Amino acid sequence: EIGITEDSYRRADKGFIFTRSGKRVYFLGNKEKEIDVVDCCYSLARNYRWNGHTTIPWSVAQHSLLVAKMIEELKWRTPVKNKELAIVKGLTHDFTEAYLGDLVTPVKREIELYNNIETELEKKVEEAVDIDKDLTEDDRELVKRADTLSLIIEAMTIVNIDDKYRDYCNDELERAYEDVRGKAILEKYSK
Asked: What is the DSSP annotation of the chain?
């Protein structure tokens, strides 16, 4: 069985990285106060989306800003319960990548241990930015939708995609137009 095991926790003291500020961040175990927002921002500004396969440099930090901006500005059909917390979640939704890197999604889906470690780090991030208790499931879902929408916009504007994937993206955009109450509102993000 793959997952976080007793043996994994015994090795946890060796399972860390050093950050820009010199802190240790442990992948397993519950070490307090190790997530540093500045370290995360620094790292994500230097990690590129799409494994760097874009027509322009596009960092994970820029992607996160786009997600937060869409949460803030788009008129979602499902109202945001706590917009400020949802925006913070949009800004920090990929903070785990500051420690784990931006592993491409098709590979990430197949590695259960990676997903378990990422989930544990995600909890630490939410505690560090104080959104762990008050962010609703609806707002979490809205952040996921904004994240997916950002991915589609990126694919169509800064990635050389084939016709089959372009058709998929166009279908997803049509669904997104319904989600955000109108094409005109969303089109400004697609340019």
From this structure: --S--HHHHHTGGG-EEE-TTS-EEESSS--TT---HHHHHHHHTTSBGGGG-SSS--BHHHHHHHHHHHHHHS--SS--SSHHHHHHHHHHTTTTHHHH----HHHHTT-HHHHHHHHHHHHHHHHHTT-TTT--HHHHHHHHHHHHHHHHHHHHHHS---HHHHHHHHHHHHHHHHHTT-HHHHHGGG-
